[in-house]
Specification:
This is Transposase. There is one protein chain. It contains 2 helices and 5 strands; from the N terminus they run E-E-E-H-E-H-E. With 85 residues, the chain is α/β, with parallel strands linked by helices. Strands 3-2-1-4-5 form a 5-stranded mixed β-sheet, with helices on one face. It starts with 5 loop residues before the first strand and ends in a 6-residue tail after the last strand.
């Protein structure tokens, strides 16, 4: 049995990041800054508690979101884009 009931994937860019959840066709876009990160966490708080969130390495653009999720106690994995396709 899986520890997670949700899987969230995040595509990171310099200006924004795009969020998709496994099993859903909806996507959500947020600004890649403290305000956008806070909005994402507020919008997904109930799902993040039971989710594994996976984001890509993007030369550092992912770090603010990654650290905020970790500091908030959410499960997050930074995937090596050379190994995940």
């Amino acid at each position: 049995m899986s520890l997670y009931s949700n899987y969230i994937g995040i595509d990171i860019g310099k200006i924004s990041f795009v969020v998709a959840m496994y099993g859903s066709k909806k996507i959500y876009e947020y600004e890649n800054n403290p305000t956008g990160i806070k909005a994402f966490i507020n919008d997904f708080k109930s799902k993040l508690k039971y989710a594994l969130t996976v984001l890509e390495t993007t030369g550092g653009y992912e770090m603010q979101l990654l650290l905020t999720l970790c500091e908030s106690g959410f499960a997050v994995h930074r995937a090596n884009t050379r190994k995940v396709k």
